[in-house]
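Before surveying the methods themselves, let us examine one representative protein, pairing a chain with its fold in token form.
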Amino acid sequence: MECFNSTKLASPCISSILNLQGSSSLVCNKFSKNSVHPWLLSSPPPKPFFQLDDRLQYRQKSAHRTYRGPILAEAGKQGWDLGRFLKTLYFFNGPPSPSKFFEFLIEKLSSPSPSEPKKSMESSGIVLVVGATGGVGRRVVDVLQKKGLPVRVLARNEEKARKMLGPDIDLIIGDITKESTLLPEYFKGVRKVINAASVIVGPKEGDTPEREKYSQVWESSSSSQSQIKGDSPEMVEFVGMRNLINAVKGSVGLRNGKLLFGREDNGFRDLAWGALDDVVMGGVSESTFIIDTTGGEKGGPAGLFKGIVSTTNNGGFTSIRTKNFSVPEDLSSYDGLELRLKGDGRRYKLIVRTSRDWDTVGYTASFDTTEGQWQSIRLPFSSFVPVFRARTVSDAPPFDPRSIVSLQLMFSKFEYDGKLNPTFVEGPFQLPVSSIRTFIKDPVTPRFVHVSSAGVTRPDRPGLDLSKQPPAVLLNKELDFILTFKLKGEDLIRESGIPYAIVRPCALTEEPAGADLIFDQGDNITGKISREEIARICIAALESPYALDKTFEVVKSVIPFSEPFTVDLENPPQEKDYDIYFKDLKDGITGKELLEQSPVPV
């Protein structure tokens, strides 16, 4: 709310009914005709007298009295619109209920202090590891823990996971192939995901702890020695990927932000906006919010905040505010709010509330507009200032974007702490707003890193010599189209809107990390790479803007598959700066280009 928050209204109980940012200094000593709900009165409420002091707060100059006739303010003697006042009250608080009013009044009299948001804010930034008991996944968990990063793992078998990863691991039990097991509360606080889950392929007769038979299978390229164990490639690589993306999308965020208001694709998301003007303190300013079906910058729909602002009766602001959202918006995976609007050269405010109470702190950010130009206004969450009764609240908790319950746009004469809006002019105004959405600040880094496989585009690639390809390419059909569904799973990530990186290792080994590497794109290279190295690459990709929305293959350079790679444990190689490799990656190269190319006409 604005400086009217400490208004002393005509009837002291009207101030309590409105719950306007703080309790009134006036108290109803008894439930008389002059102190009940205004809609219960047979005559208009008493005449108010207002005066604005240098602190932008109002005080009552004289005792009120009851009389019949129009409600006037001393300054300007202009009539006050009681009907609009009650309409505003009704819109935001619902139909009048005398019983609820008396309950509310007793509560206000016994607890006059304004409500405040919670004083604590939990930390987030958890990295979720999926497939954490696999060869790559457990190494990812180990590296993250050594780096001191918060880790949560998703596993199907609790006993196996705790035995492998430790009894104190932050563990959620679920199965990506079963959507019903991926409960929303499991993913609160998760900001990044490394998905190392994969369909299980192994020798038909089992394997040794060192996976010696697994290597023999892939070297022999014999389908008679290998099989899918457990769920099918379609269920794990495609259905499971779809379920996982849907489960984490709200937590990790979207590259282009989450739309709160405005047009997106073929739809338009509206909110329940209502006018909240200085009529609530005796003023006469008036505003409205409508959808102009052709008011957008490209002729599409846009919201239009417009009205007439006046300082008569010590007023001076107009605003539109949403009703409280039925379900609070958790925007904690983003860095701020972005408004797309056509400016008029004036300064406005966006007020965000995290409490359903009317009488509470509003987190506020002012922004200037350029006259006649469509522009994007980005307001970082860190710029929102806690304001109460037009004064900043120095001891308020930081803005917590996990529970947004309402939005408010305001044009006002008043800033904060006694300051005035330098762009304020009385009279008509209008502000077209085409969208309000969240944003992720630059540089954007991947929020979802997926471990796929080299070769996913090769089974259907024309003109490819299959005799020179890895076993998985040769055995794709016999292994229930394992690579085909891996590629379909990759496509789901690319289409999800989540900032991503897709890592395609060549044949995985149990060898240590540290060998020289080759990064490539287009799905052409063959060779081997250690699981330890892939784990490190995945974690590095989470922090690198160069890896954003890239798909790439990686292999150890030069070393033949049959030649083991070892390191000197007393003098291990230094950990790599993977940005050196990420910097050379290009957008849009997946290897699918070769599948989509048409023959060149002769």
